[in-house]
């Protein structure tokens, strides 16, 4: 667990890609990237909340704290964010 | 949340479609023998420019990210560019399917200058003989010319869209090479017995042995090839193919036809799957959310005769449209069931003296060129 909390991704300033739109859905949200045309399912309301405020905070960790995400859940969030960065839904600022 | 839970949620329907097909016109310069909308002649009831723009405004309010425009040949409409620009201006990306007839050098440059626009050029054979047998004489040259014009205009990665048939299964590698040569992306989709396909499906649909060939090819190439998630009936052959493993009809997809009728999916243009019309009070949004048909499709569906088959979770019983237009019950096997149950069901049907198979509710085939496949 401690190694996960040292994940360097947590210190990075992130944001939704400017060409990404989020549509609220019962399971979380649909994210669509108008640039690369990828459609991605964000399958948890908390992940959607974090994604929406990323740009307002200096780091991913700060955004997670601001959304009140328990630190025990952070590893699953860094994993989800890593996958969203692969499809460029989330990018580094 | 697991993939299974997501599928369960999607089956219960979303507040707006993920993927909406809009056939802009029934008019077409071609008469493909498998045309799923039996296109040819323009319908005088076609939506006007103003009506079409109102639909696009509704779709913007519903946050539909993109639409698939088809036809007929959508570029036949004089307001084609006006509608595309209105859509993109509304934040709705456009993917449109065309036979390429109207993509000359100038139109290719105009298309290349637009954002959020994807083009699918239809091609059903890597040579004129294979393609033109299905799509009509001259259609291969037409598509190739359009692709050359798009490449010359630096359009970027357009798509080559192939309906997989018995005749072109052996050409899959060559389709891929053709697309790679243009820097294009290959899209392959499943043939349905819809529209004029009602009469040509027997002759065109892949054999059971070819289904395995298609599955193996998609497993090897699937990451770089688009499929519209249309081959999920093949999942009973092994590991699931990439994409959603479910029928999205009325749940996450639907069709708006040229006269504004809303059907459950592009392959079921029949009164039984008609949910309403965009001209009805409340417009498209009301049809999507409240039509009785769509609400019933979002209820849990019975597996029927497939309930005892160990592969049901993998193939989901296949495609509703394929069953409907071949005369099979909707809660039984797909006519192309890889376990062979569809063939048995079709043979039983053929043994009955008189079977009235459903016909599409709309037929816009040009009368002088009605095609019969023998």
Report on this structure.
The complex is a heterodimer of chains A (93) and B (374). By secondary structure, chain A is α+β, with helices and mostly antiparallel strands. Chain A has four helices and five strands, in the order αββββαααβ. In chain A, a hairpin with a 5-residue loop joins strand 3 (28-33) and strand 4 (39-42). Chain A starts with a helix and ends with a strand. The model of chain A has no long low-confidence stretch (mean pLDDT 93). Chain B has 374 residues and is of the alpha/beta class. Chain B has a ten-stranded mixed sheet. In chain B, helix 4 links the parallel strand 3 and strand 4 (117-122). In chain B, helix 2 (49-61) runs parallel beside helix 3 (80-89) and helix 4 crosses helix 6. Classes of the chains: A alpha+beta (93), B alpha/beta (374). The A-B interface holds A 21, 23, 25-28, 30, 32, 34, 37, 39, 41, 43-44 and B 1, 5-6, 9, 12, 14-16, 18, 63, 65-66, 91, 93, 116, 118.
SS-based class of chain B? alpha/beta
- The helix-strand sequence of chain B is HEHEHEHEHHEHEHHEEEEHHHHH
Secondary structure: helix percent of chain A: 25-40%
Please count the helical segments of chain B.
14
Largest interface: A-B, 14 and 16 residues
Overall geometry of chain B comes to globular
Distance between the termini of chain B: 50 Å
Cα-based radius of gyration of chain B, to the nearest Å:
20 Å
Keywords:
heterodimer, A: 93 residues, alpha+beta, two-stranded antiparallel sheet, 5 strands, B: 374 residues, alpha/beta, ten-stranded mixed beta sheet, 13% strand, globular
Short structural description:
The complex is a heterodimer of chains A (93) and B (374). Chain A has 93 residues and is α+β, with helices and mostly antiparallel strands.
